[in-house]
Specification:
This protein has four helices and seven strands, in the order H-E-H-E-H-E-E-H-E-E-E. With 150 residues, it is α/β, with parallel strands linked by helices. It has one domain (24-146): 3-Layer(aba) Sandwich (Glutaredoxin).
């Protein structure tokens, strides 16, 4: 009787997942020590569930060169996630899409500092910009457009 009661009680409990909890994906960010918008972008990634580590660097051109990102795609900070380089204010949604697709590429870039991109929010202003996918040959193609069409 006790065994039947115990089995029934167990059956009524919600099933627990036997798989381990998904760990936050680590992102290494290299930025100028005085850059506030870079810190805001890192916070954007943290809020999206990434585990962000920041390293201050006075010469990001050296970092980009070491990582293989052509200088013409420079933003105000450089990051690395699962072997991909992120240059500039790339939205977290596009980083997740990149990691899901796993293309043969150097990474993603949002060149410059477009107003309205993550970390560059200024009131309601939203300038259009593109997220570029940079292939291993250094050529780009549009990966996403912002603001996105409704």
């Amino acid at each position: 009787m006790k065994r039947r009661f115990f089995s029934a009680a167990l059956a009524s409990l919600p099933l627990l997942s036997l798989s381990p909890a998904r760990a936050a994906v680590p992102v290494q960010v290299y930025k100028d020590p005085n850059c506030g918008c870079c810190t805001a972008w890192a916070d954007h990634l943290r809020q999206a569930g990434f585990a962000v580590q920041i390293t201050d660097s006075a010469d990001l051109a050296v970092v980009r060169k070491r990582l293989g990102m052509p200088e013409r795609f420079a933003g105000c900070h450089t990051a690395v996630v699962e072997g991909y380089v992120l240059e500039g204010h790339v939205p977290a949604a596009e980083v997740r899409k990149l990691l899901a697709m796993k293309p043969q590429a150097i990474g993603l870039s949002v060149p410059g500092m477009p107003v309205g991109s993550p970390g560059m929010e200024v009131g309601d202003r939203q300038d259009p910009y593109q997220v570029l996918l940079i292939d291993r040959g250094g050529k780009e193609r549009v990966f996403a457009r912002y603001p996105k069409a409704n």
